[in-house]
Amino acid sequence: MTIRIVMKRMALVLNMFMIGGPSSHADANWAERHKQHLVGSWAEKNGRLQEPVWPWKGAPNRKTEPSSSSKSHTTDEIESQMKHQSLGLVPSSSDFSEIRHSKAFADKTAFLYEWLTHRPKQWYVTAPPGFGKSTLGTMAVQFLNASVEIVNGVEMFHDKQKTAAYELFQGTEIFEMKEFVDKHFQNYAVVYLDLAPLSNTTEAIFKIDEDFLSQDFHKYLKMAIRKMMSYYPTLHLHHNLTAVERATLEWYLGEMETEVTPVKFWKSASTLARLLRKCFKKDVIVVVDSYDALCKPNILGDITKIIGPYVASYIINFSKMIIQDGQSRVLYLGTFKTIELMLQKPSDLRLQKKTMYTIEHTDFYSDERIAKYFGLSRREVTDILARYSMLDHFSVVDDLLDGHAVLRSPLTLFNTKAVLSYIENKNATPSAVTFAVYR
User: Per-residue pLDDT tens for 263-320?
Assistant: First the structure.
């Protein structure tokens, strides 16, 4: 069975998501393996996302307030990373900063030009697991986000050419587009939200106020929100903020256990975007990874403990509040599309109705201009195999993975994670490599 057929069957199941009900007969062991993988990979990625790209490279050794950009790598971390790369190992995460200087790098940076120049303001792109969505998301953050720190209550923007991000993108396709780089490189305040923790939800139903936080749905939601806020840990020190705004930021950075309401959760990203705009005087871009994270528990979870309309209300209200002011550009990344994720009702689909909350969607395989930025082409697979001295393995990889066709195009794309899994486990069985596609 090809990956394409599996994905089509999964899409049929998802027609029931949040409106009908999920199947309760899923493979429990597979679900648990998937859950543990998500927890581990998400935690690992969050530990890396901002470290190598937001600090001011070569900042003077002085005492200031902690930067609202990230901390830089320690010498040991840098040496460890260089050793990792010199050994030719496969990158251990999907973070762009780790992949960029590894043998596994395929230059997809021109995606930024396609997105910001030709695509809608609220755009949702879907592709199968393992096709590089998170890498594109972190790449966008690292390219667009201004390198800034807060000193004595005032923002201080760093020289772009002295940032780690500048070195990260040197030599890439996007840096050849000088006019585009001048306009967009490090010229935004970026809100990055990874909803992957919500994939682990086992209970999400409407409860009375005193039981509001007893469900793990809220625990995982708080985890994602706190991580989103933690990329700006000292924003609350900015002198432009009111006492109420400072308290709000501190609440989101804390445990979020007092005076909790659904509205506070829904408004988290829109609040951060508004305050970044106020303090830094820059346009805000929002990147939402794993936008469809709640699809997984709805498919695999206990139908009596996960109520579709309840979790749908969170996603709908959350996303509406991000885009309601019309000021922020938003990129959503995920695997599945449902009408709730598009902030629509069934009646809206029949009427082809568009509102200010409309999110436009593209399946990666439907347009070659988009598809080429996901997965790996045959040429990219052979280039990567050659770097690992495994070019003679291409026929095996081709037979195992088959590739994913693109509509009205000769382009065939391979699952990035599966290809790298094969390289990492040179003597792996076909089943072991194929499993990487679904992790």
Answer: 999 999 999 999 999 999 999 999 999 999 999 998 888 888 998 888 888 999 999 9
Strand 404-405 to 412-414 pairing: antiparallel
- The model's pTM is 0.80
Distance CA 153, CA 157 (A): 13
Partnered with residue 155 across adjacent β-strands are 150
Query: How many Cβ atoms sit within 10 Å of the Cβ of residue 106?
Result: 19
Asked if 180 contacts 265 with a C-beta cutoff of 8 angstroms, the reply is no
Both tokens assigned to 103: 């043998």
| Three-class DSSP labels, the chain | CCHHHHHHHHHHHHCCCCCCCCCCCCCHHHHHHHHHHHHHHHHHHHCCCCCCCCCECCCCCCCCCCCCCCCCCCHHHHHHHHHHHHCCCCCCCCCHHHHCCCCCCCCCCCHHHHHHHHCCCEEEEECCCCCCHHHHHHHHHHHHECCEEEECCEEEECCHHHEHHHHHHCCCCHHHCHHHHHHHCCCEEEEEEECHHHHHCCCECCCCHHHHHHCHHHHHHHHHHHHHHHCCCCHHHCCCCCHHHHHHHHHHHCCCCCCCCHHHHHCHHHHHHHHHHHHHCCCEEEEEECCCCCHHHHHHCCCCCECHHHHHHHHHHHHHHHHCCCCCEEEEEECCCCCCCCCCCHHHHHHCCCCCCCCEEEEHHHCHHHHCCCCEEHHHHHHHHHHCCCHHHHHHHHHHHCCEECCCCCCEEECHHHHHHHHHCCCCCHHHHHHHHHC
Residue type, 12: L
CA distance 111 to 174: 8
